[in-house]
Structure formats: structure tokens, C-alpha cells
Amino acid sequence: MGLLKPKNLVGLDIGSHSIKVVDLRHHKGGFELRNFGRAQLPPEAIVDGVIMDSAVVVESIRNLIAHLRIKNRSVATSVSGHSLIIKKIQLPLMTEAELEEQIQWEAEQYIPFEIDEVNVDFEILGPLADEDGQMEVLLVAVKKDIINDYTAVIAEAGLTPLVVDVDGFAIENIFEVAYPEHLDKTVVLMDVGAGIMNINVLKAGQSTFTRDITLGGSNFTEEIQKELGVGYEEAEILKLGGQSEQATPDEVLEVLRLTTENLVLEVQRSLDFFSATSAEEEIHGIFLSGGACRVPGMAAAIEERVGVPVEILNPFRGIQYSEKQFDPDYLEAIGPTAAVAVGLALRRVDER
């Protein structure tokens, strides 16, 4: 069995607003982009990470894979939202095998769901320097029905789901490849999707604080519709700086400003909580991804409120690609929406 090559996976990000697919070639020199595409979903197909219209999602996945002519049917996907719990816990020092036997009992004390309703995984982060005989463990629990819903639509679309990851960890994967010069610092990875905003604080390349917030691009769209009396499609265009005869640019910017204030307040609350529990940690930068991160004024508002540099994350920064096949300007523009899918495409089935 040792002669078998680890299997590459296609990254499949099923978001509330759109589906993104990334196919990478893994080689000794790094990674090369072979294929990328996305398909928009209708409103309400997925709400707060929960699939509401499985038939639409299945058809969208099937059509996108066919359009891109992707042959590999093995995929990695990910989940987020309130059905996902991520906690750092302290436990007595033990081996991974010993923790594997005890994790169900240990997890039961930390999660708000019945233990038989969730799938549990963990990663041992290492011994605690200031407490003898104790170690730090990252505990991840996801409700089984959410995983079953996602894997069911993937299977129905003719694909094989081999890995179910977490959105925030997928972005962490691509950050390590694209921004290695920042791996010794404390940084914030912030993914602003359509329905969910994920905040992940990395310290020296290791996740130390995460939070999912039910707030994202859909809130901007809904406020524009409500305040300016326009339809969904027009609101989507206005949200990202487009023009309309129904509203002036100043009117749109005012709606965006008010919604951005709510979002920035949640970001500040999250980082204040992190700072209160990690007094010595200085945040060196915030990297934004997700389809809503390019809302006019968002990056500047976060930078002003939090007081650290904010940068739009480019997941293709560490990925090779043919400029004949992929327009660099397009990849840079679309990059923030592709971050999770690129991170998933880095996974292989031989990894934990």
C-alpha cells in the first residue's frame, strides 16, 4: 500500500451565495491551478449554512463540474455556522491514541449538543508551558445532520466526498502557502461570506481563536433592497459598487456604511475578547476573504476601528498557473471568493 500515491482532491466550496470549484495539480515544486469555476445559487437555497433546496444545489454542482470538464470525482468540502463548535481545551498529557479513546467523553463537557448528534475530531496543539502535566487540544464538533446534508447533495451530483473540513481551516491552509512570511506573527483571517462571517486568529501559524458570526454579504443586499426599493439582482450590483438609475451612489454608500458599522462592531467585539484572554498578543494584520469583503469601505472601516493593517487575501499568490489559460487580473479580482475552495484543493486523502 505504501507504493500508492496520495490522492488529490477537488476543492468544492458550497456557499450560501455560490458554489466554487478548484482543481490543483500537486507536484514537488508546489501547486498548479488546473481548473476553477463558480456558479451562483438563488437566494434562500442555503441559509446560515443549512441547505434549504437540495435539488437546486445538486443541479448547480453537477452542471459546474460538467462545464469545467473535471474528471476527478473525489472532493473535499467544508462547513461553517452554528452547527459547528470549535474550542481550545486543556487536558492531562496523553498520547493521541489515548485521547482518541476518551474524546467522546471529554467533548461532551464542552459542546451544547447531544454527543450522539455530532461528529467529533481533535488536534493536539502541544503541552502547556506554564502548567505541568497539561496539554492544549483543539476540539471540533459538527452536527451529523449538517454533514449528512452536504455529503448527500455531493453524492447525488455524482461526486465522492472524501474530506469534510471547516471553512476557517481551509483558509488557514491557503494562507500558509500564499503568505509564508507572516507565519511567525499573530494575524487574523476573516472570511466574509454571504451568510456567515468567520474570524480565525492565527498565532505562529496555529489557530488560537475562532468565531462564526451570522452576518455577511446577504445583509448588505437585503438592506439595499429594503432602503432603496430595488430588486435582488440590482441590489447585488449596487453592493459591489455598480450603478443604477434607481439610486444615487451617495444613497448606496450610506446604506453600506450603516451595515458595515454593524459588521465592524462584531469584529471588534471578537478581537477584544481574544485580546482579553491573550493580553500579550499583538495583532499584526487582518486578511480579508469571501465574496463580501470587497464591499466599498469595508476594509478601511475595519482598519480604522481595529487599528491594524487590513489586506485583501489573494489565495492564488502561492499557486502557479498559465496566464494563457487564466487571466491574472481576473484571478486577483475573484480571489477572495475562491479562498475556501483553493484551501480545500490543497487537501489530500492521506492527511488527518
Comma- or semicolon-separated keywords:
Nucleotidyltransferase, domain 5, Dna Ligase, domain 1, 3 domains, five-stranded mixed beta sheet, disordered N terminus, globular, alpha/beta, 352 residues, 9 helices, 15 strands
Explain what you see.
This protein has 352 residues and is an alpha/beta fold. It folds into three domains: 157 residues, 2-Layer Sandwich (Nucleotidyltransferase, domain 5); 58 residues, Dna Ligase, domain 1; 133 residues, Nucleotidyltransferase, domain 5 (2-Layer Sandwich), CATH 3.30.420. 37% of the residues lie in helices and 29% in strands. A five-stranded mixed beta sheet has the order 3-2-1-6-10. The protein has a five-stranded mixed beta sheet with strand order 13-12-11-14-15, sandwiched between helices. It has a three-stranded antiparallel beta sheet with strand order 7-9-8. Helix 1 crosses helix 3 and helix 5 packs across helix 6. The longest helix has 29 residues. The chain is globular. The two termini are 17 Å apart.
